[in-house]
Amino acid sequence: MRSRESVHGFRPGRLIAGLCALAVAALYAGDVAGEWTVPWFTALPLTAAGLALAGVAGSVHYTVRRRRARSRASSDQ
User: Fold this and answer.
1) Where would you find the membrane-spanning parts of this chain (predicted)?
2) Could you tell me which residues come within 8 angstroms of residue 46 by beta carbon, excluding any fewer than 6 positions away?
3) Dist. CA 37–CA 9, nearest whole Å
4) Residue 66 scores a pLDDT above 60
5) Alpha helices for the chain (secondary structure H)
6) Among 8, 24, 30, 62, which one has the highest count of C-beta atoms within 10 angstroms of its own C-beta?
7) pTM for this prediction
8) Where in the sequence is the domain holding 37, given as residue range(s)?
């Protein structure tokens, strides 16, 4: 039987992308509610920066996972 972590592992890139999308949604929700004024072009740089940061986090996570797997494989032999 497979462990739960192997089926649904931690994905830091997806976490960062989701948090960025939630932040953009919260900004515009506050704008709609009249709490503050958000310029219309705010979503583009926030989303782009969030996706870039998510890509970096995903790449780093993949590299770390791959190196750990190699070290485990070499220590098992």
Assistant:
1) 39-64
2) 20, 23, 24, 27
3) 38
4) yes
5) 4-7, 12-33, 43-76
6) 24
7) 0.79
8) 12-76
